[in-house]
Write a structure and sequence with these properties.
The structure holds two protein chains of two kinds. By secondary structure, chain A is mainly α. Chain A has one helix and no strands. The longest helix of chain A has about 60 residues. The N and C termini of chain A lie far apart (about 85 Å). Chain B is built from eight helices and two strands, in the order H-H-H-H-H-H-H-E-E-H. Chain B has a two-stranded antiparallel sheet. The longest helix of chain B has about 45 residues. The chains are: A mainly alpha, B mainly alpha.
Chain lengths: ~60, ~230
């Protein structure tokens, strides 16, 4: 490999490395978003459960 | 097919960018002739210049969205302007790195402070890097949106200065390929350059769509968390 070929390869490698780094960072972001969605789903489910229990309690008292 | 494309702009643009960049790579290494003056190292041109022009396009797009925000007052433009600048900074940093590599092989130095185009481009990049510092130093809300928009609009002034620097002020090392007489290269070189430029622009828009979707999702999740917590 000549010096020019090495430098051209390095320039293209930089471009690919930046794109790969972006994909890695984005995959971490997707993982975080999935975690947050799961937490919110859990929160919504427990809230719905609480409301249903209150409703049942109200119906029993009434 | 057209409905599929309309409903999925991100994947469609990504596929388009992939096809164009693969074609550009094949044309660069297997078809376009080796430059008589610079030799094999000139092939960086098909990567470096499209990346630089794409960064200008991203900053221009960010400024356009900023203008829309100031004009219409709709908050959604703030996120769009911020995302365009985010992608633009990525491309600008890649321009500096690939340009440095090209400089080392062509001029024998990684950087030359005497070159106006290089210095103006560095100022442009640093200016947009500072955009993030400004943005995160202000609390989220209309004030941050307006301040960021005004800053993004100021930055766009540097784009024509950067592009015209070597044409107006002259140059010692950095070549000016696009002159008043048109592109100073053969037809096959110009065609390869155009394919590469189209690929880079498609890639930038694919990244823009992906990043914007992620940022919008972040905002919606934050709103949902607030509603559920109340």
């Amino acid at each position: 490999m000549t010096t020019a070929e090495k430098y051209v390869t390095a320039a293209y490698a930089v471009f690919l490395a930046v794109l790969l780094l972006y994909i890695v960072i984005y995959s971490f972001r997707i993982a975080r978003l999935q975690r947050e969605v799961a937490e919110l789903a859990e929160l919504a489910a427990s809230r719905a459960e609480g409301e249903a229990r209150q409703e049942a309690e109200r119906a029993r008292v009434g | 097919m057209s409905t599929w494309l309309r409903n999925r702009p991100g994947p469609a643009l990504s596929l388009c960018a992939l096809a164009l960049l693969l074609a550009a790579g094949a044309l660069t290494f297997f078809w376009v002739p080796i430059d008589a003056d610079q030799g094999f190292s000139q092939k960086i041109f098909y990567l470096h210049v499209p990346i630089a022009l794409t960064s200008y396009a991203c900053f221009g797009w960010g400024a356009w969205k900023a203008l829309r925000l100031l004009w219409k007052g709709e908050s959604r433009y703030d996120l769009e302007s911020y995302t365009a600048i985010h992608i633009g900074v990525m491309f600008a940093l890649m321009t500096l790195v690939t340009g440095s590599i090209w400089g080392k092989i062509s001029w024998g130095v990684w950087w030359s402070w005497g070159e106006r185009q290089l210095v103006v481009f560095l100022i442009l990049t640093l200016f947009y890097c500072a955009y993030f510092m400004l943005r995160y130093s202000i609390e989220a809300g209309p004030r941050r949106e307006r301040t960021s928009a005004v800053y993004a609009l100021f930055g766009v002034v540097l784009i024509p200065i950067s592009f015209l620097a070597i044409r107006i002020l002259g140059t010692i090392l950095h070549p000016a390929v696009f002159t008043r007489e048109g592109p100073q290269m053969s037809g096959s070189m110009f065609f390869t350059f155009l394919v590469s430029l189209a690929g880079m622009v498609a890639l930038a828009f694919a990244l823009y769509q992906t990043e914007l979707a992620g940022k919008r999702l972040d905002v919606r999740l934050r709103e949902l968390r607030r509603v559920l917590a109340s």
